[in-house]
């Protein structure tokens, strides 16, 4: 990875204290992979999510080292996507905690495949070349998948030196094994990718109903501070707005499905209104395709053609930029 680009990215990694002994490490939303992380600096340290590659996760560790006394004893993975867990190996002594389905599906994405895409900038396929450009700030070399081994099914409560952390399974929503981390006394919630704040969400296996219910769960916890999987910190307005987005897109997709339009054409025609200013609005392709799968009665975890969906997303992006 070109050193200058890495340095530019790292300088934008921000450490924010959000409660006593509770911190968020935020990356500006520049598209694929720029996720957030959290640290509870009690009870030996708990990190909520690592980053997508080793260089970024090393910088994450350096950032947390400003305020923690040593390597964290525990890491929670909110779900299986690599941008929230592929840095796990850099916490070799930590207990890795996650939902049972997160661990079961951990190898669904492969770092060597992502590295091959990243290096395909000279591809004759415009979609592949565009995806390679989107991945240019990442380096997937050397990643060894280290899935969670401390597993739970519904809920798990941790005592972090007198600070209580509640891990709550809310999937299948964004993925089957989605977990949020609630610190009730501090009134903080780390959402993983249940919440994309001011950026268009992507969903994998799950349902609209479960995703909106998960957002309702976050609101019901009445937190003061929410750390989304992507995007800036917020309060309950964040999950409320994203729920409205999901409900709107599903309803609009239903109109076009009933009219017999293909999913890509439906995504092209939906008026995004107040959501048009969210980053990467072309990601709507993923939500429309999910809606169409539901309308066809397919199971929530039916395999999807990810390459085709990214191709459709990039086609919409080109149309938007050229129009």
In short:
The chain is α/β, with parallel strands linked by helices.
Kindly describe this structure.
The chain has helices spanning 3-11, 54-64, 100-104, 111-118, 126-134, 208-220, 237-258, 263-269, 284-295, 306-322; strands at 14-19, 22-26, 37-40, 46-48, 74-76, 95-99, 150-152, 155-160, 163-169, 179-183, 188-190, 225-227. It has a single domain, classed as Metallo-beta-lactamase, Chain A (4-Layer Sandwich). The longest helix has 22 residues, at 237-258. Helix 2 links the parallel strand 4 (46-48) and strand 5. The protein has ten helices and twelve strands. Helix 6 runs antiparallel to helix 7. The protein is α/β, with parallel strands linked by helices and 323 residues long.
Rg value:
19 Å
Helix percent band: 25-40%
Number of helices: 10
Quickly name the level 1 CATH class. Answer: Alpha Beta
Provide the domain count.
1
CATH architecture: 4-Layer Sandwich
Characterize the biggest β-sheet: 7 strands, mixed
Q: Mean of the pLDDT scores?
A: 92
SSE blueprint and pairings:
Elements: H1 3-11, E1 14-19, E2 22-26, E3 37-40, E4 46-48, H2 54-64, E5 74-76, E6 95-99, H3 100-104, H4 111-118, H5 126-134, E7 150-152, E8 155-160, E9 163-169, E10 179-183, E11 188-190, H6 208-220, E12 225-227, H7 237-258, H8 263-269, H9 284-295, H10 306-322
Helix pairs in contact: 5-10, 6-7, 7-8, 7-9, 8-9, 9-10
Task: Pick out its properties.
Metallo-beta-lactamase, Chain A, 10 helices, 35% helix, alpha/beta, single chain, 323 residues, globular
